[in-house]
Amino acid sequence: MSGFRYVSYAQEVIFVPGSITRISEVLERFGWKKLLLCTNHSMQIEGHVDSLKSSLGEHLVAIFDRVQPHVQDIQVDQVLELAVEHEIDAIIGMGGGSPIGMAKAVAYTRKPSIPIIAIPTTYAGSEMTAVYGITHSRENPPRKVTVNDPKIAPRLVLYDPELTLDLPPEMTASTGINALAHCIEALYSKTRNPISAAAATNGVRHISNTLLRCYQNGKDLDARTEMLTGAHLAGLSLASVSMGLHHGLCHILGGTANIPHGIANSIILPHAIRFNADLTAPQLLPAAQAMGISFNGDSPKVAIEAMAQKIFDLVGQMNLPQRLREAGVNLKESDLPDLAQIAFQNPTVQNNPKPITEPAQIEMLLRAAW
Ligand code: NAD
Description:
The protein is α/β, with parallel strands linked by helices. The chain has helices at residues 23-30, 41-45, 48-56, 73-85, 97-109, 169-188, 194-216, 221-239, 245-255, 261-290, 300-317, 336-344, 347-350, 359-369; strands spanning 12-15, 35-38, 60-64, 90-95, 116-120, 131-136, 143-148, 156-159. It is globular, with a radius of gyration of 20 Å.
């Protein structure tokens, strides 16, 4: 890599346990008076919506609490109507990548656009990025497209580790591996830069230290705090680089084979690491060391193989599927050549650091993951 270029965003990030109970003090500084909250039912059940309500008082003028996965266009229209009706001046997304994506979609679609406040409760990392995906469900077949613009980056990001204490073990594990994958692909990204590399390496260290602990005991606030720090660093690294084969493939496996995003990440990550290792082992070496793998000067590829195996084992320890055939969807081994063909056309897959010149390379990876 010679030279680098990246875009950074004007964002205030606050990371404090219990911070949502003091959100109104922060908002006063920004001068936002009328806020709309996008969230989903689990946040109501866990009482987080009530905490926000009591903290924001009359400034919380509307709540949309039934955000579905993957930002549906029909729901965006409904929330936009609420935004116009209540003349809001900022929008909050609280929850995983889906409610935060909904807040981004509404804020960006409204003209003029409005600022976004993101309060993440999973490790998906959307809060740090200037991207959202939207599903055009009125089209046949429905199509998910991504929108990318610096205006989409949340202006205020509030991390409150206490909100993650209820995150169920499977969501903890799968969104945690998603965060780890952001770090790995950021490290070998074609557009990597010194900030993304530093954030990604430290992200791997925190995630590797704590993900299993969070899975085993979700109420461990120290582990949850360090894990959320790792997820923040993963999101920060993701925000300024382009992704490659792993990410592109996970989107295809989600969109075409219906495999949930975190599960696809858990299955594919060790294989994507191995696939790229000839070319990317030097960039991944700091991640392997951050995961506690010793390197005594032999080929970095040996350490990277040990890292791939360690991630595979971690996925198994957290009872996530380790193979595509265990993903619990209606996918057959005979579907793999077609999936490889589709993936071969995907621009993110084609943005991989190691060139992919024929679908057979992807098919081999998918067969190894089968
Ligand atoms: P999600 O937002 O769809 O949430 C999944 C489930 O977890 C929901 O049922 C939710 O109720 C539950 N949940 C979330 N937090 C909880 C908590 N603290 N306690 C109990 N239950 C909780 O899932 P996700 O994996 O966070 O996000 C996935 C979506 O985000 C996908 O659409 C993906 O494409 C998108 N994404 C976007 C970016 C980006 O940069 N734009 C990055 C990562 C993911």
